[in-house]
Each structure stands twice: as structure tokens, then as C-alpha cells.
Amino acid sequence: MKKEVLENGLRVVTKKLANTQSVTVLILAGAGSRYETHKNNGISHFLEHMFFKGAKKYKSAKEVSGAIDGVGGDFNAFTGKEYVGYYVKVASRHQKVAMDVLSDMLVHSRFDQHEIDKERGVILEEYNMYQDTPMYQVGWDFERLMYGDQPMGWDQVGTKDVIQSVMREDFVAYKKALYTPENLIVSVAGNIDHDEAVAEVKKYFKFEDAKKAYGYASLMPNPSLERVFLKHKKTEQAHVVVGYPAYHEAHKDHYAEKVLSVILGGNMSSRMFLAVRESKGLAYYISTSTDDYLDTGIFSTRAGVDVKRAKLAVAAIKEEYEKICGEMVAKAELEKAKEYLKGKLVLRLEDSEEYAHLIGKSELLHGKMESPEEIMEEVDKVTAADVARVSKDLLRSENLRLAAIGPYDDKEEFEEILRK
Q1: What pTM was computed for the model?
Q2: Are residues 170 and 249 in the same domain?
Q3: Which of the residues 36, 48, 143, 249 is marked catalytic?
Q4: Boundary of a domain, candidates 158, 189, 204
Q5: Which domain does 189 fall in, by range?
Q6: Mean pLDDT in the chain?
Q7: Which SS3 state, helix, strand or coil, does residue 57 take?
């Protein structure tokens, strides 16, 4: 892994990968939905769409997509809470095409008002899609329950009011404030040469010398005492998220928390899967995972359950939490979870896109690149005593929260389960 900081503050990180003929060029910006306010909630995601609508050299969405399709490449973008990403993955001989297209989009986008007005309909349909997909929506409902009415509690798609009202000048101002060289990472991974990649970044990514205008709002305590969020919806399957507040990404017990999540519900031989799905037949899908941010986190189990037995499923999930709380897990179970984490990391990083994301995110959010070897070393350090201590610290009954979508109206029935 190599890094170079250009004169204007733009950081370039690279990783040469053996045995691949591809290259991924990924741009990450510290401009996710945490940087929004009530007045512009959803602009980060809308802006992501608008970058593909035409700029100086590639003047339309057709020309942008045509340039990448013409070399058999893949391109896409995503909006998270703490950062936004744009990537092009191509055969290594077309690396310059990836640089050319991405730089034109991010430096010279025109934000044509006519295109903005057309894209409103697309994003409103995306908004409706998520509303009609409880599996996704329940996760956002859980975040709202955990964090309340502040950016960490809002979803990335935003509100209909903002989607319908945002104008060209809003995009220009937001881009100027946050898409600055010091707030961007160009991450390049694959069959590459570091010096060549840096030279191409210098050639193509010529930003105005500007400073990042502002950061995200500090996380505020959620004053609400609500422990259950119900959304009544006539569904054939209920969707639940049951979980707790957890550690931030740089916490000393981050990897012990990850191991705990795998033991509980990380795979098909995990406790949640075997107990709730296989033994009791209460869920179709079930998994336990962590959401990790700069100053906060969530530890939760998600499940799609029989609408008539949702309360039994929630009680069964809670039971597994209680069983492992403070437990010294067996050595075999601990080692299996650690090997699972390391094995999945190895498989992910065979893809140049995943490697570019790993080093780019680490540099953007933490100012340093963490290698796979360093991650595996931290995983190996986790002991049964660490898991027991972390489970006892995180899985406190008074902190347990639940979000559910299904044909339900009585919150008290679910609240009673959490109190038991």
C-alpha cells in the first residue's frame, strides 16, 4: 500500500494486486448524510445521482455510460452516512478512461436544472421502493429509534420535500463546501503502478484550491425513552431489528465486538440461525451484525419472521442475547468465528473494488491505511475473556431496542417482551 498527498491536499492511495488484470479507481468524499440538515436531508444522495448526468467532456448520462460501456467496465456510486463513493472498474489497460470519466464528473459537473427536474422522479421512485421494501426500511426505522431526530437517525434517501424542492444552486453550494481536495481520497487498486497512478491523478483531477467548509454535526444524546418502534403495514412476513447501542469503529474492542456478532448471528452455523431458524422455525432470514461509525455504533439482529409468531421470534432473539452475555465461549466456537472473519476478508479482497474501498475508507475516516494483515492480527488477538467482557458491556437489558414492520398496532406487547 502506498500513499501520496498532492500539493492541493488531495490524497492518493494505491495497492498493486497480483494475479489480476483489472483496476478500480474509487473516489471517496467526506460528504455523507451526516453532513445534512433538515433543510437539505437527502442532498448527498441526490448529488450522487447528478454527477452522472453530464459534465464538460462527457456531456450527458448517455456519454458517461457509453465511455465506460465502451471498454467493458463497471461503474456505480453509493451514499453512506459518513462518506460517498464513486468508482469505475476496468481492465487495467483502460485505467486512463476511468480517471478521465470520474474526474470530469466530479470536477466539471454542470447540474443542469432540466436534468435535476427529471431525476426527481427517479429518486422519488427509489424512495417509494424502500418504503415498499420492509427488509430495508426496518433498519432505518431502528436507527431513528436509536438516534432520534438528528442526522444519524435520518436515512440517506432523504425526505420527499427536499427531493421535490432542491435546486441547482443547492447542489453547487454543497459540492463547493465538501467536494474539496483535502476532503477527497482517490483510491486505486489492481494491476497498477503507483507512480503512474499518481501522475494520472495529477493530470485529471485538477480541483480548485478550496478548504472543506464544515464538518458533520456532533452526535447528540437521544432524549427519547422509547424502546419500541412499530410501523403498521399489511405484510405476509414481519421484519424486525433487535439490538443495542455499540462501539465506534476505532474502539479498542472493535474486533472483539465483531467476533461476538459472528458467534451470535454471522453465518448459518451461528447461534441465532440454529436456535431461532433451524430449531424453532421462527424466521426465514436472520443475522447479527454491527454498524460502525466514527463516534457511535449499533449491534443488532435482523430477521424476517412469521407475522403470527413475531413476538415468539423477538423473545427467542432476546434469549440468545441473554445466554451469551458474560459467557466464556468455547475455544472451538471462538476460533471458528475468528477464522470466518479472516476468511471472508480474504475472499472480499480478491476484488480490486473491495481493496480500493478498504484502503480508501480507512484513509478518509482515520487518516491511515489499515492492511488486511493488521486486521487479521487484531482478530487473532481476541480471546474468550474479551468476548465475555464485551458481551456483558454491550448486551445490557435496559438498552435493548426493537423496530418492527408488520400488521401490528400494540407496542405494549413488544415492550413487555423487552422488559422480561
Answers
A1: 0.94
A2: no
A3: 48
A4: 204
A5: 2-204
A6: 95
A7: coil
